[in-house]
Specification:
This protein has 13 helices and 19 strands. The protein is an alpha/beta fold. The strands form five sheets. Strands 2-1-3-4-5-6 form a six-stranded parallel beta sheet, sandwiched between helices.
């Protein structure tokens, strides 16, 4: 039978969709974007917008494919079970049993009985998943962790992903080795709270990075996101000594004001964040540091917003992912007073996005005239690739996908760098 997968949200979802795709292909199913008989929708619930998009997609695919078998899973269905029952999916899951997709479909074909499963608890074991080759990205994502115990006051993810749990250390090594064997030169460690990684044998994320670096064919190791509180001396030493670690870290700030950070239940102050960023730049002077910032959090006055602007500017991020605060049921922030109006959130978002564009330009233009190594991810008349420090580069010639090439950087157009192969 023919199937397609629609993935919304984060790299963890992308990994889990790739895992389901691989299992279905191995079981004899055929991937077909145009005429699928089975549609899998892997949903996201990180914001209200993500929830709304997930629900809209579910209604769209049911309306356009009334006879297809519809499978819905992920964070939004975990968070909004009743909202998805209206589209009558044959299989409705939360974030568990994605790895059992083949058996779930085979059982449905035998019984024609609709199936639902929701764990109903935060205390979960790690659902074992591995992939052999990433078909949707040149860079291979490797999920090493699931769940979160931080309970930031704005976030629903701890409720829909459960408590922190981790993939076995040796299992990760084997998975990375297999991905490298199949040609992947860059792997991206990902999870809901990736930096919390702690294997049952006592090994942490730094140990894992150190060990996978020994694979000869692996050229780059990237971390999808890491909290500032997890960037300890041990990690900084590895960052200094290990050239395979990419020259890019995504470190969420969320607010540049101590008052708002406290209300958010974040576990650091602005000064603590700044000090660690300074230490990172002593180790890697030209590193790209990107971040997430929420604007319009309850109680964020104009004065506090200006503090965030000032902090973000002083930290010289290479990109800021801006999120207007989104009310999430079950969270502490949803019950807080002094919510900011939609209009004000929109204005502040525009202002912070403008700062991001300025900082992006300043960072990218540092590399004009320099030679950078680029991993080609899209081939054609114009090839597109990514540098170690996560800059997009266009080269005006057709270069083979998944190759590392040296490129002389010539210009920046406001979105990406342009260069010529050396």
């Amino acid at each position: 039978m023919k199937f397609k997968i629609i993935t919304l949200g984060c790299k963890v979802n992308a990994y889990e969709s790739e895992m389901m795709k691989e299992k279905l292909l191995k079981a004899g199913y055929t991937y077909d974007e145009e005429a699928p008989e089975i549609i899998l929708l892997n949903t996201c619930s990180v914001t209200n917008v993500a929830d709304q998009k997930s629900k809209k997609m579910a209604r769209h695919y049911r309306r356009e494919n009334p006879n297809a078998i519809l499978v819905i899973c992920g964070c939004s269905s975990e968070n909004n079970k009743n909202a998805y029952e209206e589209v009558q999916p044959q299989i409705l899951l939360g974030n568990r049993k994605k790895s059992e997709i083949v058996n779930l479909l085979e059982t449905y074909f035998k019984t024609h009985e609709k199936y639902q499963f929701f764990a109903g608890t935060r205390k979960l074991s790690f659902e074992d998943m591995q992939i052999e080759k990433f078909t949707t990205h040149t860079r291979a994502f490797v999920k090493i962790e699931d769940g979160c115990d931080n309970f930031c006051s704005y976030c629903v993810i701890p409720y829909v992903r459960g408590s922190i749990r981790h993939k076995d250390f040796d299992t990760v090594l084997k998975e990375v080795e297999t991905l490298v064997f199949h040609g992947h030169q860059e792997i991206v460690f990902t999870g809901i709270h990736t930096g919390s990684y702690q294997s049952s044998n006592g090994k942490d994320l730094t140990d894992l990075i150190h060990e996978v670096s020994k694979f000869e064919g692996l050229k780059r190791i990237r971390i999808s996101s890491i909290e500032i509180t997890e960037l300890k001396e041990k990690f900084l030493k590895e960052l200094k000594e290990n050239p395979k670690i990419c020259d890019h870290l995504h470190i969420p700030l969320q607010a540049g004001s101590d008052d708002i950070l406290k209300k958010m239940s974040r576990k650091y102050t602005v000064n603590e964040y700044k000090k660690i960023i300074e230490q990172i730049r002593l180790v890697r002077p030209n590193i790209s540091i990107t971040t997430d910032i929420i604007v319009g959090f309850p109680g964020e006055t104009e004065e506090l917003f200006l503090e965030t602007l000032k902090t973000a500017s002083s930290l010289e991020f290479s990109k800021i992912h801006v999120f207007p605060y989104s009310v999430r049921e079950k969270t502490a922030a949803s019950l807080m007073p002094n919510h900011v109006s939609s209009e004000e959130k929109h204005r502040r978002s525009k202002e912070l996005t403008a700062l991001s564009k300025k900082l992006e330009k300043e960072y990218a233009e540092k590399f004009l005239g320099q030679e950078l190594e680029v991993l080609i991810e899209k081939s054609g008349e114009e090839s597109i690739g990514t540098t170690s420090n996560y800059l997009k580069v266009k080269i005006s010639e057709n270069l083979p996908n998944n190759t590392l090439v040296s490129v002389k950087i010539l210009s920046y157009d406001g979105f990406c760098l342009h260069g010529t192969k050396i």
